[in-house]
Structure formats: C-alpha cells, structure tokens
Design goal:
Elements (H helix, E strand, L loop, with lengths): L1 E7 L3 E8 L4 E8 L6 H18 L7 E8 L2 E3 L4 E5 L4 E4 L1 H8 L4 E5 H12 L8 E6 L3 E7 L2 E2 L31 H4 L1 H14 L4 H9 L6 H7 L3 H25 L3 E5 L7 H14 L10 E4 L6 H11 L2
Parallel strand pairs: 1-4, 4-8, 9-12, 12-13
Antiparallel strand pairs: 1-2, 2-3, 5-6, 6-7, 9-10, 10-11
Helix pairs in contact: 1-2, 3-10, 5-8, 6-7, 7-8, 8-9
Bound molecules: zinc ion.
The site of zinc ion has 6 residues, from loops.
Amino acid sequence: MYYIGLDIGGMSIKGALFSKNGDILERGTLKTVTNQDYKIFVERLRDLCLDMLKRQKLNQKDLIGVGMAIPGSIDSKRGVITYANNIAFKNVPIVKEFQKHINVPVKIGNDANVAVLGEMHFGSAKNYKDIVFITLGTGIGTGIISGGKLILGKAGAGGEGGHMIIRFNGEPCTCGRKGCWESYGSATALIRQTKEAIDKNPNSILAHIANKEGTVNGKTAFDAEKQGDLVGAKVVKRYLRYVGEGLVNLVNIFRPEIVLIGGGISNEGDSLMRRIQAFVNRYSYGADNKTRVLVKKAELMNDAGIYGCLAMFLEN
Ligand SMILES: [Zn+2]
C-alpha cells in the first residue's frame, strides 16, 4: 500500500510516491500556474499522481492516502484552502474536488506546519515534542509543535510567526502591516538589505561580487563576509540580528527543546547555526538558569514538505 505527498509551492509542485515504510519510490514535478481555475489545478494534481503510480505499475486502488502541503491559511478539518495569496486561491474545497478524481483519504495542511511534522517524524527533530521550525525563504514560515501537538488555531489560521512585528512602523509587508519579522528576516529582506549596502558602497568587495555574478541573492553578503569584506560582514551581522530577535520572541513564548532552521538561507550551514545558537543562548528569557535551546539545521531541506504529507497520516 502506498501514499502520495504533494508539496505545492509558489513556483513548483513537488510530488512523491511513498511506500508504507516511508521510502520514496517515485518523484514528479509540475510548474505552479497561478490564477488558474481550481478545477483545472486539481486535474493537474491528479495527473501528477496517476503518472507516478503508472511508472511503478500501480493504480489508484493501491493508494492509502494523499497528503498536500499548501502555502497559506488551510482549514484541514474542512479540507478547504481558506486563503493562499501566492497561488491566488480563496475558499477552495480542494479535498472534495480531488476526491472526485481519486477517491482516497486526503489530508491537507499549511506548508510550514506540514514541514515541521516531516522533521518530527523523519528529520532533525525525531524524539522531540517541543519544536519551533522556521524557514527563511521568500517569506518566513513557522511551524510550531508544543507538547507534541501542532499549533493550528481556529480554522488552521494560526502559527503565522513571520507576521509578528519586530519594528514598529517598519518596512511594509505583503500582509498589510508594517515591520513584520519576514520583512526583515526573510531571504527577500536580506537581498534588499544587500542591495542597499551595495548602493552605498559601490567599491566594496560586496559590490564586486554582485557585479561579477550579475545578480544579488541570499548568498552574496555571506560570500563577501567570507572574503573579509567589512560591508558584507555588517549586512550579515544586522540580518542575523533580525533573524535572532524574532526567533527569541518565539523561543520565549513556546520554550522549545529544539529550533530548526530551514529555507534557502540555511544552506550557510554550521557557522550560521552557531551564530543563531549564540544569539538564542544569550537573549532567551532566563538564559542563565534555563536549559539551553538547541538550534539545528532542518535536515530534510526541500523534502520536509513531502515527508510531512506522509507524516500527517501517522499523526493521532
Ligand atoms: Zn506581515
């Protein structure tokens, strides 16, 4: 018997066919088309599933369930995408629609929430029950497990740590407020901060790296810092402070045993984890006399979502 996981992102949709032991037997991808009629969107998901099954000489009768990780507010109980701004869906009954094509149990969840379940069952957070997971990517996604339970809130709309204000009246955010954590700590924000530093310091190593590569990305400032550039180092230092301040807010509220860092920025690896760890050690509430909170890279990386789809079936 088999499961399918579908990780629906703003750019692409990743699919995986799992054996019941959790081995990935097949993979498939689709390009995400936004502003598409949801019925057509679901037909494309169906085709992706059927294609993976066919390649393993299986059919839909062999499936036990399909899990979906979706960005936005997801009502898992009703099987509805309440609001997903980057795929432009509002109140889409995706489970009901999907089951018209493939009639198996379908579980859906917010992408960061699904990813933290993936890490808890298959990745860096095995054997932990209090976990804060953050992804530093286009935005900041957060998935929080407290006492072994995922924090969902009413209609699954909670757990949006990226949209807490860390700077009053600060940078505008896509959610409509100003000064959200993701407007300072996401990869998108780091790129903006890097570009501002380049404009002010056109002769820096940072500016030379950007010119040579013809682009600025989430690595540019880190690369400049490694080459001894003071401008790059300053950008990184300030950026890590933004990341750290928001993270310590979450640590103080939820007091996890472990913090997992995912998303593109986490590719900076051990040295980045050590710096975030030092910030958390220093600034967490009661840091002197409490057990330390472990900071680790999320090891499943891009597969956390699809493993999480399988994990949803292992929950409760
Ligand atoms: Zn916001």
